[in-house]
Known about the structure:
The complex is a heterodimer of chains A (about 180) and B (about 180). With about 180 residues, chain A is of the alpha/beta class. Chain A contains five helices and ten strands. The longest helix of chain A has 15 residues. Chain A starts with a strand and ends with a strand. A five-stranded parallel sheet of chain B has the order 4-3-7-8-9, sandwiched between helices. Chain B has a two-stranded antiparallel ribbon with strand order 1-2. Chain B has about 180 residues and is of the alpha/beta class. The longest helix of chain B has 15 residues. The interface between A and B is large, with 38 and 38 residues. Chain B: Homodimer. Chain B: Its main location: cytoplasm.
Amino acid sequence: MSVCKEDDPRIDGIQSRIRVVPNFPKPGIMFQDITTLLLDPKAFKDTIDLFVERYKSKNITVVAGIEARGFIFGPPIALAIGAKFVPLRKPKKLPGKVFREEYDLEYGSDCLEMHVGAVESGERALVVDDLIATGGTLCAAMNLLERAGAEVVECACVIEIPDLKGRDRLKGKPLFVLVESQ
Amino acid sequence: MAAQIVDSTDDRISRISSSIRVIPDFPKPGIMFQDITTLLLDPKAFKDTIDLFVERYKDQNINVVAGIEARGFIFGPPIALAIGAKFVPMRKPKKLPGEVISEEYSLEYGTDKMEMHVGAVKAGERALVVDDLIATGGTLSAAIRLLERVGVDVVECACVIELPELKGRDRLGDKPLFVLVS
């Protein structure tokens, strides 16, 4: 199930700052560009505030952000709610010992890694990325956290592409988004 | 309302410094890699890191914080949010979806490119460039050149860590560098 904040007056401003770039990275894809949102300090702040308001009383101890755009939204949320921030990275970027989780792409596969020891058993985690499409990356992220013994409380994204049904790939965990895009 | 007690700068730097993990021989033999992911696991140290930058820049009329992919995306946005500036990601090639300008820079062997969206910044804006660490200064100087090509005034570069023996500071031309840990 996904929850959306359509009724909040700040959403319009956020949605209007997202730029759609056609045919990127390949023909037929309407790319949701959040960099224009980051150019509007009020809209960026509102984005973070909407997440913080939802999570500050949920005893979240770790915010995991998916490289690279999850690194933009995750840390401000973590700082505001007093949680750790854990970067989930493409292979060979993290210098220490890692957990590695492979996941399928349209053609081929990719990998996500997390440092061993970053997350302790029993921790309550939030997974953050800018956007959920098919949900493959978020699912890999959840697997990493669960392998380390954490409980994934929710996944949080700025944008969802509902037609791609990513929320069905989240192993029953809830998804919270601010904006839905067709 | 009770006065908030802020630890002394020295105490905060001390905690930040000791939270950074050194990983020998990564990414290759002989390199002592400065791993900031352990700093991000200490909410107080991470908050202190951001606060130290914010205290320095909040009254300097900074309009833009440019963060270098990917670890600059972790530190740049919280600073931008706190000082009311835009955040502009400086990215590896082919990641940004819109029209870009790019700047080539030297690596130990070969070259790489850094890109910024056209229109993200305007001539006359005052910018801060943020990354987790300065080594040779190659990446930071590429970011400075990109911003200056469109008429931006780069006020300062800010990093958590400096490796002084690599003399990166000298590659920044007349631009000052501010670091927390040397």
